[in-house]
Structures are given as structure tokens and as C-alpha cells.
Design goal:
Layout: E1 11-12, H1 25-42, E2 51-57, H2 58-64, H3 74-82, E3 87-91, H4 101-106, E4 116-126, H5 128-132, H6 138-147, E5 152-161, E6 166-172, E7 182-184, H7 189-197
Parallel strand pairs: 1-4
Antiparallel strand pairs: 2-3, 2-4, 4-5, 5-6, 6-7
């Protein structure tokens, strides 16, 4: 699989917006899950591969497998009892080989017991004027990206539920702090749509 940190397909810089507020119980639960996933992945550092997570409603998972309670903290169990939409994330191992993120997502499908999915990926962001000058040749484009003085490395976490609800978290390497992570339902619309398609 192509290393997402060096994929020669830059993303445009995200728009600056006011902090987003989840609009529904489902979106609040998804926002919490995406935030926790992004923090978990951030703890492992940068230059990481794509990671994929199944999202399941914790109450339903506990009903189907009561022994799961032994693996969850008291705090998580209390939150799951209080919030019907509380979500548990399950990282997927042994992902299929793929040339790029788009191919990987196209190869994924989920059983009905999965309520949503989340993906984390690293990308290079360039300002529009720099992106316009990028060479067409893939090797030259990669060298251009990696050597550009205005490049910014970002980690993106995108989560989507079966009803279409989405949430994103975006962390820049230049502001690598939990309180500097941007959040919103559609910060990366193309990736949101691609992740949503895995649940179709």
C-alpha cells in the first residue's frame, strides 16, 4: 500500500471555520468516537499507515457479547448506559493490499452489525498556488511535494454512520497538540463520501 504520508496527491488547505458543534445524539457520539480515535492514533506518532476502525453501538455490542464488559473501563460502561448512541471502535487488522486509499476503501464492506466506520490517514496539504505548479510526473510530483517549503503534513480522521452522519478531525504536524485539532462534519468532503460508500 502506498505510504499515505508521501502519496503525491495533495489536499487543498481546509477552510478556516468556527468550531463545529454536533447537531444530534448520533453526531455527538460519532464526534466523541472520532476524537478518541484521532488521539489514539496520534499517540503512535507521525508517518503512520492508513488505519481503519469499525464502529458499533456499545449497548448492542454488550448485549451480543456480555464478556466485552470485562474489556471496557468503568467510565466507558457508565457512558454506554447513559448514552444509547455511545460507540465503541474496533481497529481492523489485516487490511487488503491496495495501491492507494481510494482502492482500499473500494474493497471494504461491513456486516449489518457494524453501525459505522472510521479511517485515519496522513496527507500533504499545499496552498492552491503551490498545488497548481505541481509536476504531472508522479516521481517529480512526489519530490516537489516533499521539498516544498509551504507543505503541511496533516492527519485526518473521518467517521461515518450508516444513516450518513459524518464527523472529521484534522491535526496539522506544525500544531501537533490535542487542543489544536480541528473538528467538523464535512472538513474533507471527498473522503467523507468515500468512507460513506463503504457502508452502502
Amino acid at each position: 500500500m502506498t505510504d499515505p504520508a508521501t502519496n503525491p496527491s495533495p489536499m487543498p488547505a481546509p477552510e478556516q471555520r468556527a468550531p463545529a458543534v454536533p447537531a444530534s445524539p448520533q453526531q455527538r457520539a460519532l464526534a466523541d468516537a472520532v476524537r478518541e480515535i484521532e488521539h489514539h492514533v496520534a499517540a503512535a506518532g507521525w508517518d503512520a499507515p492508513v488505519r481503519v476502525f469499525a464502529l458499533v453501538r456499545t449497548q448492542a455490542a454488550l448485549e451480543a457479547s456480555p464478556s466485552l464488559a470485562d474489556q471496557l473501563s468503568t467510565q466507558v460502561l457508565a457512558a454506554a448506559r447513559a448514552e444509547p448512541w455511545h460507540l465503541t471502535s474496533i481497529e481492523q487488522e489485516g487490511l487488503p493490499a491496495a495501491e492507494d486509499l481510494e482502492s482500499l476503501l473500494a474493497a471494504l464492506s461491513w456486516p449489518a452489525t457494524v453501525d459505522g466506520t472510521a479511517v485515519t490517514v496522513e496527507r500533504v496539504v499545499l496552498p492552491p498556488h503551490a498545488e497548481a505548479a505541481m509536476p504531472q510526473d508522479p516521481d517529480a510530483a512526489l519530490a516537489y511535494l516533499m521539498g516544498h517549503p509551504e507543505r503541511t503534513d496533516v492527519r485526518i480522521a473521518v467517521g461515518v454512520l450508516r444513516d450518513g452522519t459524518s464527523w472529521c478531525a484534522l491535526r496539522a504536524r506544525t500544531n501537533d497538540s490535542d487542543d489544536e485539532v480541528g473538528h467538523g462534519p464535512d472538513l474533507v468532503p471527498g473522503l467523507v463520501q468515500a468512507v460513506r460508500a463503504t457502508l452502502a
